Amino acid sequence: MFTGLIEGVGALASRETRGGDARLVIGVGTLPFDGVRLGESIAVNGCCLTVVDFDARSFAVDASNETLALTTLGRLPLGAPLNLERAMRPSDRLGGHLVSGHVDGLATAERRWDDARAVRWRFATPKPLLRYIAQKGSVCVDGVSLTVNAADAAGFEVALIPHTVEHTAFRALQPGDAVNIEVDLLARYAERLQATRDWT
């Protein structure tokens, strides 16, 4: 599990096709990397991936075809900045919201504008995802826990404070870019419970 509070920004160092899927090497950038272990989970732009190799400056992960199809990781150019977060510990403060690292799909950065010191973004979002996104609820965009400021039938809006812009890959985001979206866990489970209430 993760919190959606980004710990560092790294970069995509390489993408190698292996047996039909891919191995990615991620430069750790500003991510605190002491004590890393093989097999631990790191969220890369919101996608939970397993460390299969590492050195002092990078780590390698295997990305399945499902991951490559549902996230931006199969299409980002080499050198692209990546939001990184190591898995939370039971003793950590939950400053964002509970994030599983299981990306639900993609949205498109549609528009950016300044709002006092904040930067606001609107994301065009597929309708199957929008049903889980509510005003004042939580959404995870490229691994960043954000509050939904507005939502309608075509997309949603968020506001980023200066700290978030400065310390995440959002500073490089451009209109037209695809982003990974994970909807709130509670919304997903509430729908599932409703759909299966007659099973007993």
From TrEMBL:
Lumazine-binding repeats: 1-97, 98-194
Reaction catalyzed: 2 6,7-dimethyl-8-(1-D-ribityl)lumazine + H(+) = 5-amino-6-(D-ribitylamino)uracil + riboflavin
Recorded GO MF terms: riboflavin synthase activity
Gene3D superfamilies: 2.40.30.20
Alphabetical keyword list: Repeat, Riboflavin biosynthesis, Transferase
Metabolic or biological pathway: Cofactor biosynthesis; riboflavin biosynthesis; riboflavin from 2-hydroxy-3-oxobutyl phosphate and 5-amino-6-(D-ribitylamino)uracil: step 2/2
GO biological process: riboflavin biosynthetic process
Enzyme Commission number: 2.5.1.9
PROSITE patterns from the UniProt entry: LUMAZINE_BIND (PS51177)
Boundaries of every Lumazine-binding domain copy: 1-97, 98-194
Subunit structure: Homotrimer.
Alphabetical list of NCBIfam families matching this protein: PRK09289.1 (NF006767), ribE (TIGR00187)
Role description: Catalyzes the dismutation of two molecules of 6,7-dimethyl-8-ribityllumazine, resulting in the formation of riboflavin and 5-amino-6-(D-ribitylamino)uracil.
Protein name: Riboflavin synthase
Taxonomic classification: Bacteria, Pseudomonadati, Pseudomonadota, Gammaproteobacteria, Lysobacterales
